[in-house]
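User: Teach me something about this protein's shape.
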Amino acid sequence: MPELAPDTIAVAMSGGVDSSAVAALLKAEGRSIVGLTLQLWDQRRLAGHEGMPEQVQGRCCSMDDVYDARRVAEQLGIPYYVVNQQRRFEQDVVKPFVNEYLNGRTPVPCTLCNNHLKFDQLLVTARQIGADRVATGHYARVEYSQERGRWLLMRPADTAKDQSYFLFGLTQDQLAHTLFPLGNMVKPQVRALAAEQGLRVAAKPDSQEICFIPGGDYKAFLHAYLEEQGKAMPESSGELVTAAGEVVGSHEGIQHFTVGQKKGVQQRLHAHHATPFYVLGIEPAQNRVIVGEEQELHQRHALVDTLNWIALDDLRGPMRVLAKIRHRHEPAPATIRPHGDSMAEVEFDEPQRAITPGQAAIFFQQDLVVGGGWIR
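Assistant: First, the predicted structure itself:
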């Protein structure tokens, strides 16, 4: 391994245009950089299982991506290393993903990956090879506040690409040693930069899929993964019940449902209902799925646990925020309050659609990420 210069930055290279542009940008600025790719999942592992494609041509975290990242590193003339983290990824991301669905919750694996693996392991590996900071292609900003005495996470200039929702779990140490060079850029600028540098990934499409689920069919993945593990899908068939307790249908398993879902509900009802029914909630202990009309999906309250505060040490009283309850949700005005020893209560000014257990809730004040946690 070549000796690295002082103040070397480890660039997390995924093989996509964003992280490649970060490497090119820092290299053009004269920074000493090294490329790192975390190998997280073998895309061929479940190929051929029922419901899974025989051949996977995934973009995110695939061998093609490792190849693209290596080519960019060679083009830029920087050291490059692949770090195998498949075992930890399975333990910290894949297994919790499976267990959450089997328990009637809807997980956010990209946030789990950032919180429990990517930034933690990137910093560990960077320090092992002599780098003192990491840089990624996430669209977010980080800065230090003398007034607060804290590192702050901010929303990016390109609000359409805002990835702060997936980063709420970063610690003060991680923020202090992380750079987001694209935070003040918009996507067309990033692609233009990559093209100017002649990077082969300049026009590469963005991946929209969960990296370990090709095609996005999580139900097929659950079956294939459990089969590979020598386990059967747990028996979780049960009743479809209204909020008033009326049994109106039956289902084959709670893992087939998520809050807000409409597809697949109507045909499981015992009798025809002119008004479409949606999933309002899931009660895993009884294997019951609560269903009702669309307006019943709108609620004002949520409880959030496993909290991480970025802009403050702790929540000690009511605070006005904009709360975001899923990646595509427009942050809505709300008041958050401490609840018990380790939770927060969120009270929205107006009812919000499909507040879903297992999803993350993130709190903003303008562009500042106050903190966040997991909806109970």
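Now, about its shape. The chain is about 25% helix and 25% strand. The two ends are 46 Å apart (CA to CA). If you'd like, I can walk through any region in more detail.
User: That's plenty for now, thanks!
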